[in-house]
Amino acid sequence: MLSKKAKYAINALVYIGHRMDDGPILISKISEDENIPQKFLEAILLELKKEGILNSKKGRGGGYFLIKELEEINLAEILRIFDGPIALLPCVTHDYYKRCEECKDEETCGIRKVFLELRNITVKHLKDSSLSKVVSIDGNK
Fold first, then answer.
1. What is the pLDDT of residues 74-121, one digit of tens each?
2. Which end of the chain is more exposed for a tag (fewer CB within 10 A), N or C?
3. What CA–CA distance (Å, rounded) separates 24 from 66?
């Protein structure tokens, strides 16, 4: 299950993606329109800024804006930023690998094989789901 942080991050990015031509967007506007607590949203947007997805401008006409193209941002990247590994087992995750304590032999473990296949399918689908694709599907403009 997605964390609220990851879900809010995706919602905020889709919101900003729909309004790319409007210039920087105020946190208060995103918070109000997307029903995301403002303090929580501030932390999320700062994390996205730190990861090189967003930038911000201070002062009049300020707010947050995308610095990556919509096509360059995929859901796998966002989920890993906020929720860590996408895999359901630590022994099948790519970036966060950890051997399962109860495992006798990873090479012959049927459980591992099934969950590795699931992870591969899930990661491929999330990587193929760019923010551009999500914005074009989403009708909330």
1. 999 999 999 999 988 888 887 778 888 888 888 888 888 999 999 999
2. N
3. 9
Helices (H), the chain: 4-18, 27-34, 38-50, 75-83, 110-128, 131-137
> How far is the first Cα of the chain from the last one, in angstroms, to the nearest whole number?
26
| Distance of alpha carbon 23 from alpha carbon 87, whole angstroms | 36
- Can you list the pairs that 135-140 forms with residues at least 24 positions away whose Cβ atoms lie under 8 Å? 135/14, 135/17, 135/18, 135/70, 138/14, 138/18, 140/14, 140/15, 140/18
- The pTM (predicted TM-score) of the whole model is 0.87
61 backbone φψ class: left, alpha, beta (φ>0; ψ -120 to 50): left
d(CA 119, CA 62): 40
Judge residue 128's burial from the number of C-beta atoms within 10 Å of its C-beta, 0-12 exposed, 13-18 middle, 19 or more buried: exposed
Which residues of the chain does CATH 1.10.10.10 include?
A: 4-66
Best CA proximity match to 133, nearest among 48, 72, 86: 72
